[in-house]
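Form 7-S
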Amino acid sequence: MKTSSLVIDGQEYDNLSFTIGLGLAVASSVFIGSSFIIKKLALRKQISSGNIRASAGGYAYLKQWMWWLGLITMGVGEGANLLAYAFAPAALVTPLGALSVLVSAVLSSKFLDEKLNFLGKISCFLCIVGSVIIVIHSPKSEEIKTFKELTQKLTDYVFVTYVSIIIFMTIIIKLMFVPRFGNSNILVYLFICSAIGSLTVAFCKAVALGVKESIVGNNVNNISNYMFWLILLSCIVCIMIQMNYLNKSLDIFNTSIVTPVYYVMFTVLVIIASGILFREWEHMKFGDILGCACGFLVVITAIFMLNAFKDLQFTLRDLNINARHSRNSNDEFVVSLSRSRSR
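Output:
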């Protein structure tokens, strides 16, 4: 019996695999969005206990079971996201990560009493739209079958240059920008987190491929390969740095703002890292390049609005009231003008 199937980006997916991938992608967004809230609650509990805040260099949150629950929740979400790519096309899985922004916004308003103003909600929507545009037009990940092939790509001079730039910029931001703007500008900590996170994705993929190949491969033992352990160590270091600066950002800023900005910056930098790693930008069409540029502009506009107007107390009701006042003022002006003319 032949099962029904569909073709996306030149690859064939049967409906069962597509449904499983879709479910995993949605579940991933729910877990990741929830993890931000759980971590924020743990950090608030740490502050109420009189411990040093994470943003000030404190690590008392490591003793909080709730923080570890948030970390495990994020790990489950990332694992589900990784599995989703095996069942569904990347063109579907990656944009669905934007659902984590909505999940976090809803849960933060319910459990953290954090409110987004009207412009903030529009900015979150624009963050999602811009990210989806970028993902749709970005180069799709290439299939890599062996650990050796991936390690060759990781040691390619172009990717090594990207890693060097990321490390250099992280050190500069850590030394020059964190002391001055770390507690006032949300982009400082989240850039470090997202930049290092783009490296984490590449290293995690290599580790997962190495383990999988060692278990099911034909007489292949990557565990004895020094490159495997070097990549695993790099992966652990990147995850530790990423979680540290994410905790600092969550400790200072509202989750409803941290989540969309982190999602956008992380998604954009992962796409850039993947493009450099697999060199698929060379084969992009002009329409896709234009689409990516438009997506970047939307994202930049959204991030600017989130930061510039985050303290402005403004709702849709205020907009309606201002519209009525403006209409009444115009009516009064017309009446006064007609009276002056009649005289």
